[in-house]
Amino acid sequence: MAAPKPKEAPKPEETQQKSVLGRAALVRNGHAFITEAGFAQRKAYLVGKDGVLEQKLEPKNLNDMMGNPDMMQGMLKQQMGGLVPQMGMGAFVNFFFSGFILGKVPFPLSPKFRPMLQRGIDLAALDPTYFTSLSFYIMALFGLGGVFRLVFAEDAINDAAQMAAMQMGPFGAGGAPTFDPAKAYETEKQAMLVAEYRSRLDGTEQRSLELLKSKKLLG
């Protein structure tokens, strides 16, 4: 079993920036449960003069990051470490077990499932409920990805989703963007500036009357 790699600790500046963004979102989404004065005080702290979100941050240049050979080499090693074994296993299964019927699902299926379950066999007369060894390997690769990451080192086992992520680029699975504090601060600042205070207690009497009437407790 591969020893888990220690994850790189986040930078203190990035942790602080994400904490500020989280606090701003909490104030903006939960202001109905605090007083108006408390909301105004927090808003001034965040977006007032010399507010936390008014800080001038240098935007990250993704081109510079892509041009960093050390970073690119590290990403390539991390992805190739799992990509090569999976490709090798897939080639092994495809070479030795292609064309074999491995089992049958216990429920009826439409012919639309044939390309997914019968890879390696092109027989239109074959019942779609039968599945081949190659199809089973592909489904197991997707289904057991979480188990592999739990048992082995997370960085050493990459599933098919990570293979697709490598084709999309070096900046994350599913196209996840790199954290840009300057852009995130500006977005949160604009959202906070347009946020208006509205207490949860506003209209309580009217809502209570409507509730009592709906329960037929008030004539």
Give an overview in words:
This protein has helices at residues 12-30, 36-47, 62-66, 69-97, 114-117, 133-143, 145-151, 160-168, 181-193, 204-214; strands at 101-104, 130-132. The chain has 219 residues and is mostly helical. The longest helix is centred in the middle third of the chain and has 29 residues, at 69-97. It is flat. The model is unreliable at 155-176 (pLDDT under 50).
Topology of helices and strands:
Blueprint: H1 12-30, H2 36-47, H3 62-66, H4 69-97, E1 101-104, H5 114-117, E2 130-132, H6 133-143, H7 145-151, H8 160-168, H9 181-193, H10 204-214
Helix pairs in contact: 1-9, 4-6, 4-8
Can you give me a brief rundown of this structure?
Keywords: Membrane, Transmembrane, Transmembrane helix. By secondary structure, the protein is mainly α.
